[in-house]
Amino acid sequence: MLRKEVIIENELGLHARPAAKLAETAKRYRARIYLKKGSRKAEAHSILDVLALACTKGSVVEVIAEGEEAEKALSEIVALLSSRGA
Amino acid sequence: MKRLKGIGVSPGVAIGPAYLLLTGHLKITRRILKPEEVTREIRRFHRALEATIKDLEEVKRHIPEEMVHPLSIIDAHILMLKDPSLVRETEKLIKESLVNAEWALRKVLKKYQQIFKELGDFYLRERIRDLEHLIDKVIFTLQGQNNHVSLNQPAVIVAHDLSPADTARLRPDTTQAFVTEVGSRTSHTAIVAKSLGIPAVVAVKGVTEEVNPGDLLIVDGLAGEVIVNPTQEVIEEFLDRRLECQERRALLTRHAKEPAVTLDGHRIAVRANIELLDELPLALELGAEGVGLYRTEYLYVTRKALPSEEELFETYRQVVEGFKPEIVTFRTLDIGGDKFATKLDLPEEINPALGLRAIRLCLKSPALFKTQLRAILRASLYGRVRIMFPMISGLGELRRAKTFVQEVVEELQKEGLRFEALPAIGAMIEIPSAVAIADLLAQEVDFFSIGTNDLIQYALAIDRGNEHVAHLYEPLHPAVLRLIKQIVTAGHEAGIEVAMCGEMAGEVFYLPLLVGFGLDELSMNPQSIPAVKNLIRRLNFTECQKLVEEALKLSTPEEIRVLVLSWFEERDLTLFWDYF
């Protein structure tokens, strides 16, 4: 299981469009990918659960990936979340 | 598809099925399944889900290529419908609780509503509306294009007219928009819609005949347009616009709680006009520095019996405590006898706007007035309170009203209440005679609050509810500007603060003038606060004062409008006109 912390950089936080992008990306992998903020955890490809995590700008989020291609998935998702335009 | 025009009175875009307030409605009922029906019901759920997703994909295909975002809001919606948690939980409910798909979906939606309600971020919290809309679509499909819309599901309310009692019965969380056949910019529907942040279009001729229950409507509350059964392209265009509005709003809201200070250091208090206790959290979140106008009519127009002192006190206390340490300005009852849900035994009037209402009615009905004053004064012990009297036309009324307050204070003191400081007393300035004697009134009150809706109506002799003359209602009439100037001057010479709480105070277009007049406080529907504060921070007080000087030299509303317009353009500030 791989983990990495990221800080959300998007002005509006993880809002509908970035959450959609995240779900689309996560779905391409067979790895199980989660986002963890504080004590709450969401599947990355559940857009609703991700929105409900309320990741506003500056939030610290932990990305967790396990299974096939976990490493590749993790690095792509971390890059996505820490980009300003996400 | 059909486009209908009206007057847009509350900004925002909504899409939803029409609910005609005149007709009965069908509720979603719970059906208990036999265990052997479960598989079929889950299949039924998936079919409806897929059909809805297909509809959305169809919409996407019809968007011209140059307009396609790499990832549009439609994709986000499709992902919501495919959401693994959503699907899993709905299936689980069907399987384990043996309920029909509609009921299960509604329950799952409720769970998400609960979660999203708790979110701290305004923008994210509002995403639940998208889900509500989507689940609605699925339920529609499940019911086989059922045309009946229940008031328990999100809908656009279509009616000939909406009375205060009607609007009070509607649930703000499921009302997507209001569309009425009659009405004007300042009618009750408009005010309630704006205060709840619901888009509204009024004066849409023939809308109750043109629209059938369940028709899909797009309501544009800024442009004043209603589109009946829009094509899919039009739907997509509106969904994207709605998202843009919400994103801008989220950005503005971020700074809403900071004070509104001009570039040259002039601070203006920006407060909220509220009517319902429910509006309190939103008003605070949108940056209200207290309440400049608390409309207290609600409890009188929504029930058959007059409210008791305890009932009033309980509501008032919650409002006062909620805004503490900021001030709450109570406007004492501002209605005529005809508006009470319980008909007071008063004669019918031919011209109620000039009749027995507001402070006149209160002075004539001591029991009614004293009950309210007792409740307000008791609530004042829980925070900061001001009291203002509506429709003051002369000193006699003001003095009598103040005597009532004095009497009630003495009564309460005898009953053992201790007041460290009594609430400040103010007069609403909304009748031309009060403007003419503003210098005299200023000697006997602690503050003024200009009620522009009535002031303009009375000064220009325009019934704002009359569609034939409503267009003559003109805040930029030179007479109106002179009246405002006179009120501010009289107030400031006497050393009291002057506030404005009419609709005009929340319109960004008038803001440079209002700032220039030297108003100390602007009070508006909470939705307007972020935009108003944002613009104030980009204004220069001295420049605004000069603008007022210029405006006062001009002779017609048109000239003044052009002046303000070019003033905005020269400073590149037109960008800030949109509400959000």
Characterise this structure.
The complex is a heterodimer of chains A (86) and B (580). In chain A, α1 (16-27) runs antiparallel to α3 (70-82). Chain A contains 3 helices and 4 strands, in the order βαββαβα. In chain A, β2 (32-37) and β3 (40-43) form a beta hairpin. Chain A has a 4-stranded antiparallel sheet with strand order 1-4-2-3. The model of chain A has no long low-confidence stretch (mean pLDDT 89). Chain A has one domain (2-82): HPr-like (Histidine-containing Protein, Chain: A). By secondary structure, chain A is an alpha+beta fold. In chain A, 47% of the residues are buried. Chain A has helices at 16-27, 47-52, 70-82, and strands spanning 2-7, 32-37, 40-43, 60-66. Chain B has 580 residues and is of the alpha/beta class. Chain B has 3 domains: 2-25 and 148-250, Phosphohistidine domain (Glucose Oxidase, domain 1, 3-Layer(bba) Sandwich), CATH 3.50.30; 35-142, Orthogonal Bundle (Enzyme I, Chain A, domain 2), CATH 1.10.274.10; 255-427 and 507-576, Phosphoenolpyruvate-binding domains (TIM Barrel), CATH 3.20.20.60. Helix content of chain B is 46%, strand content 14%. Chain B has 24 helices and 17 strands. Chain B has an 8-stranded mixed sheet with strand order 1-8-7-3-4-5-6-2. Chain B has an 8-stranded parallel β-barrel with strand order 10-11-12-13-14-15-16-17, surrounded by 5 helices. Chain B is globular and about 80 Å long. Chain B starts with a strand and ends in a 10-residue tail after the last helix. Mean pLDDT of chain B is 87; it is low at 23-27 and 145-150. Classes of the chains: A alpha+beta (86), B alpha/beta (580). Chains A and B meet through α1 and α2 of A and α2, α3, α4 and α10 of B.
